[in-house]
Amino acid sequence: MKCVFLTKLSKSVLFYLLLLITIKMEESINYVLYGGILAALLVVVIILFVLQKQIMLFLMTNFSDKAVKTTIVEVLEGDTIIVEIPKDKNLQNKNSKSLSVNAKNETTWTVRLIGVDTPESRASLYIDEAPFGKESLAYVTERLTKNKNITLVFDEQLFDKFDKYLAYVYLPSGECLNATLLKEGYGWIRNHAFDIKFEKEFEKLQEKARVKQKGVWNMYVTKGILREEYKTTEHYQEYQKRVEENE
């Protein structure tokens, strides 16, 4: 996700850089010093653009009461993971008092990626496996290997209706995995009963994936409704066979 503050800052630096270039230089100007200033400003602009995600993650992790560092224990589904309990830190849940991360005496957390819903990868008592579920699970499992360091950033609501933690999952590079899953078509937007911080950004990412028919959009018209042309493919036949074997 983009950091608006850093984007504006880099644009401001770029503006002053261009302003300096267009200033009419007098004979008395030290050209070496002038060139050094221009080079320094250019370096700042490049750093802000290239390291924007990492800088934003550093700021959130160190100066926000909504972020905690932890490590991966297991990936359950494309949108659900288990992590180690982070170091003790108080989190402020919406409409409640401050909640300690150890308040429930847990050894691990089950975390849902907020704003994202991926197809089911396996059948359960109440639901069948869904097409592209295994692909979504495989992708997230590859990105979130056991003991991988991640940062969880919480929104106003800490839990879903099943008492699972809700968070944005950030990789060390500053990449928001929630956003990546929607961008690459590994899932759909999950409509929560409350507003989330990056809702508009998520909608834009999903729409781009839908137009390009990436991932789930190559199989589904919309969530839960398969394309008729997909039902004629070998991939769908293999999926049907697995479902029948599990009945």
TrEMBL record:
Transmembrane region(s): 31-51
Domain TNase-like: 66-219
Keyword line: Endonuclease, Hydrolase, Membrane, Nuclease, Transmembrane, Transmembrane helix
GO molecular-function term, one example from the UniProt record: endonuclease activity
UniProt-listed Gene3D superfamilies: 2.40.50.90
One Pfam family it belongs to: SNase
Keyword set includes Protein biosynthesis: no
Highest taxon of the lineage: Bacteria
Keyword Membrane: yes
InterPro entries recorded: SNase_OB-fold_sf, Staphylococal_nuclease_OB-fold
PANTHER family: EBNA2 BINDING PROTEIN P100 (PTHR12302), SERINE_THREONINE-PROTEIN KINASE 31 (PTHR12302:SF3)
Name of the protein: Micrococcal nuclease-like nuclease
Organism: Bernardetia litoralis (strain ATCC 23117 / DSM 6794 / NBRC 15988 / NCIMB 1366 / Fx l1 / Sio-4)
